[in-house]
Amino acid sequence: MKLTIITGLSGAGRSQAMKAMEDIGYYCIDNLPPIFIPKFMDLISKNIREFSKVALVIDIRGGKFFDELYNSLDYLKNNNIGFDIIFLEANNKVLLKRFKEARRTHPLLPEGSIEEGIEKEKEKLYLLREMSHIIIDTSNLNISNFKKELYKYYLKGEKKDNMSISVVSFGFKKGIPLDSDMVFDVRMLQNPYYIEELKYLTGNDKKVQNYVMKFPESIKYFERIVNMVDFLIPQCLVEGRTQFVIAIGCTGGQHRSVTFANKLYDYLRSNNREANLLHRELANKKV
């Protein structure tokens, strides 16, 4: 089991770190009182396959329970449970700006000065910072770069291409899929709907596929789609995306879009890309 403890200064990005860890398959718990760490570890040890990667966000919101963290860390060491500690920090100017933008008070001094709260928190977390395995200064990191910094440590030795790619065919009559990252319109291509023997078939049928792809413009268009997708997927991976939805639409979502979606899915799979395929209008079609 991989256990990571995410901690650090308030406003330094613990919530974003938790979201990033969830994206790469970690089971995350926010603000777990440190006193419960031993009990939690005992519990998940019975379901080690389900909880193979765990991240716990621990910080001063735990109040008087926070000081129990050191006893809990000793428990982990004494029981040979390996763990990493990520400590997040930022300079005072950036932290103060983030508190102001969020209109939040500092958790250590809810009725007092934010700057004083930051300094007190630094003092309180000094020992924990010294114990940490990874220290990340988020002062000059946007969300994308922050995720890259985390993945630099936590995707080592793992398959880097862990982005979920979905290819979806749809009909413009029923609207574009809301979660689309990229939309291709194939309505300008020859429509099998007007061929009597093809009208009631779909792009899952070989006859329809052969008809759609027999035109030079269909072949050229598909080649351009492939070139665009091949260019964008590595960029999305570098950015740290975990999902990429490619939607291909025609008028009714029965013939041309299904044909193109099938071809693109086959292309991705033949190039060792993990991909999912959904024909939205066929899935919703009444039998």
TrEMBL record:
RapZ-like N-terminal domain boundaries: 1-154
**Keywords recorded for this protein, A-Z:** ATP-binding, GTP-binding, Nucleotide-binding
Q: Which domain of life is it from?
A: Bacteria
InterPro entries in alphabetical order: P-loop_NTPase (IPR027417), RapZ-like (IPR005337), RapZ-like_N (IPR053930), RapZ_C (IPR053931)
Binding-site residues for ATP, renumbered to this chain = 8-15
Q: Which Gene3D superfamilies match?
A: P-loop containing nucleotide triphosphate hydrolases
Question: What GO MF annotations does this protein's record show?
Answer: ATP binding; GTP binding
Q: Where does GTP bind?
A: 59-62
Q: Where is the RapZ C-terminal domain?
A: 163-282
Give the HAMAP family listed for this entry. Answer: RapZ_like
PANTHER family according to UniProt: RNASE ADAPTER PROTEIN RAPZ
UniProt name for this protein: RNase adapter RapZ
Q: Per the UniProt entry, what species is this protein from, by scientific name?
A: Helicovermis profundi
Q: What is the lineage of its organism?
A: Bacteria, Bacillati, Bacillota, Clostridia, Helicovermis
Gene encoding the protein: rapZ
